[in-house]
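Morning. Coffee machine broken again, so started the prediction first thing and wrote up yesterday's gels while waiting. Chain of 379 residues, entered below exactly as on the submission form.
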Amino acid sequence: MISSLYIEVNVLCIAVLLIMMDKVKHGVVREMEQIVFSNLCFNAMLLFLMDILWNLCNGLDFAWANPLNNILNAGFFSQTAVLGYCWLRYSYFLDDTAVYYEKGVRFYLSLVPMFLAIVVCVASIWTGWVFTVDEQNCYHRGPMLWLHVVFSISYMIFVFCRALYKAFKKGNFIYKDKFLAIASLGYLPVACEAVQLCFPGEAVFCVGTTFGLLIVFFENQNQMISLDPLTKMNNRVQMNRFLDSKMKANDFSKRLVLFIMDLDMFKHINDTYGHMEGDRALLLVSDVLKRCLGPKGHFLARFGGDEFVAVAELKDQVEAYEIRSEIEESVAEKASGLPYPLTLSIGFAEQNETRDSVPDLIARADKELYKVKKKKVKR
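Came back before lunch.
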């Protein structure tokens, strides 16, 4: 019997996937990632389309109905395994390990579950292992359906476990949200597949798959917003990424120093002169930083609110103190005509050779910053 709601849910999921494909195509995602994501969406849509056609065909009596139902069932179950493999491949692109994955033996091993699932599904037309279609053209589950489920969801379970492990690994803290989004690629479809196995005839798997892709899509959009809209400097996400890569690559031939800068009495400026004037103060500071440190190749970012950061590779600590003095003097010169005093408190910390993490370095620089602010308050 045809279920209109079942078909409508699948059609809605296909429409959502088409919109995402279009947004990615016209976005700024890396070209190869565009291709892999679009391929994943296409395979999901193909699966949903087969599900719709099966729903239209199952239980009806017309010429070639029985062979068509068998083909659709074999195609649907095989496509589930293909989608699982595409899911795995895309997860490697999301965490930037696709190059290593596609060159290693893991690539060939990852094909095995998909290949076995397809063989079992196609053979089921004659053996009835995964499904059977009776003389009334009605689908029935086969005794080895569980084997097909294991082959198919093994990809998604692996994606979920791998992403969850990476999300809570100390060295990957700045990518935590991204890895949690990747994990959703695994647990949502698996959870919905479990529900659909318990309640056959309900369109649940397509919803879980679509929502998993939506979560990753939105997370990718967030990651692409790399500039602070007011100052046009790098934002906190970009700073974390840059600092993480520099700390991992540092051979300690140069000192990697993190500066954290905070505007003094910024709340007073906003409260007394208005937020427009507060924005003007932020722009003035960002202009000074770009002029002082930009030509030297140092990395600059707005950390949030009235805080800015700079990442520099220096010869010694003396150079760090010179940079701090240069910034303070330049801000004072630039702000000489303002109706209020504009000064910066600057703290900095150097990466030590124990390979500390990004949070450790930020915490040390922040601690130095508040020591400077405390001295100013006493004065």
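The chain has a mean pLDDT of 86. Going to sketch it on the whiteboard this afternoon.
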